[in-house]
Design goal:
globular, alpha/beta, six-stranded parallel beta sheet, 11 strands, binds 5'-deoxyadenosine, 362 residues
């Protein structure tokens, strides 16, 4: 027994070193790696390596995306989400095409070269309407990247939107464990379909983003291992990961929020697992911790997503309680954000910030 102890304690370190040197990670490796959480030596090792890797590919650049939350209607009922369809208290809104284009205009003027159209799964947005919106925006701003984040759709729909000009797509997988997925989402949502969507998006040439909440109800070390295995397999170009935060009108109102520390630990792991990944320091992280954004950058994040939605609608895009929307995460607070990022030793840049493709060999 006494002989075994040091070996057990060294397992997380070996797993962290294996990850940092770019090796394929087994289930066992990820399990050991997660056992190193809260061991300051492992946390520091991972953060240091994550920052080194990010710097190697992206220098000190932090990319900016202008987030436009264009509809909060949603036909789904995800148990954690404040804009779930069954929440009668949610005040619903849907921006008009004119309003959306106005957000883009303001964003472009501020210097943004990526717009993210995010919304609930709003049946109003048929393929035709969505494609029309994409064409309008890409027609008006051909030098900008357009990211969609409008949930699960058919291959055909994703194809039409890609043809219309969409460049990127964010669709968090939320959890890669089937039972956990069921605990978070009622039917008809299924993990299989979520994975199918992500595969379709990648196959269609979208820069694709997956990701999960940290500390969602029912999440365990095992489900997180599934998430990491899934990310390793999918190799998304972007990963959105923030702490779970309860919303008062949901079934999970009384659940505790996710841990900022664990989120940071996982951000470092994801940076090492997918060295060129575009990894935002999320609004949820900034909501739970006033220094969340800087802390995210210090473990390998390299994207921020200020809010470009009209001010009057912002409080209604109410995914979780106390979601910040008027400080530095708002486009108007941009100068402040730039200062804070510069003070942390990084440079906020406005370029499109595409995924850095690996050089093809031979
Ligand atoms: N806490 C944190 N993140 C949430 N999201 C939805 N509800 C919550 C919540 N209560 C996240 C989901 C979704 C993204 C748009 O917001 O991961 O994919």
């Amino acid at each position: 027994m006494t002989e075994e102890k040091p070996i057990v304690r060294e397992a997380p370190r070996s797993a962290a070193e294996k990850l940092a040197s770019g090796h394929f990670m087994t289930r066992q490796d990820f399990t050991e790696l997660l056992a190193g959480f809260q061991d300051p030596r492992i946390t520091e090792l991972l953060a240091g390596e994550a920052v080194r890797v990010r710097k190697k590919y992206y220098g000190t650049k932090v990319f900016t995306r202008g987030l436009i939350e264009f509809t909060n209607y949603c036909k789904n009922n995800c148990y954690y989400c404040g804009i779930r369809g069954a929440n009668r208290s949610a005040v619903r809104y849907r921006l008009t095409k004119k309003e959306i284009l106005e957000c883009c205009r303001e964003g472009y003027w501020l210097g943004f070269r990526t717009f993210v159209l995010q919304g609930g799964e709003d049946p109003f947005y048929t393929d035709e309407r969505m494609a029309d919106l994409v064409r309008e925006i890409k027609g008006a701003y051909p030098d900008c990247a357009l990211t969609l984040s409008v949930g699960e759709r058919s291959y055909e729909s994703y194809r039409l939107l890609r043809e219309a000009g969409a460049d990127r797509y964010l669709l968090r997988h939320e959890t890669a464990d089937r039972e956990h997925y069921r605990l978070l989402h009622p039917e008809p949502l299924t993990l299989d379909n979520r994975k199918r969507c992500l595969m379709d998006l990648k196959a269609l040439g979208y820069q694709t983003g997956a990701g999960m909440m940290v500390g969602s109800p029912g999440q365990t070390r095992e489900t997180l291992v599934e998430d990491l295995l899934f990310l390793q397999e999918l190799r998304p170009q972007m990963v959105g990961m923030g702490p779970f935060i309860p919303h008062h009108d949901t079934c999970f109102a009384k659940e505790p929020a996710g841990s900022v520390e664990l989120t940071l630990y996982l951000l470092a792991i994801v940076r090492l697992l997918l060295p060129r990944v575009l990894l935002p320091a999320t609004t949820a992280l900034g909501t739970l911790d006033p220094l969340g954004r800087e802390k995210g950058l210090a473990v390998g994040a390299n994207v921020v997503m200020p809010n470009l939605s009209p001010r009057r609608n912002r409080k209604n895009y109410d995914l979780y309680d106390n979601k910040i929307c008027t400080g530095e995460e708002a486009a108007e607070g941009f100068r402040n954000l730039r200062c804070r990022i510069a003070a942390a030793g990084y440079e906020l840049v406005m370029e499109r910030g595409d995924y850095l493709e690996e050089e093809t060999k031979g």
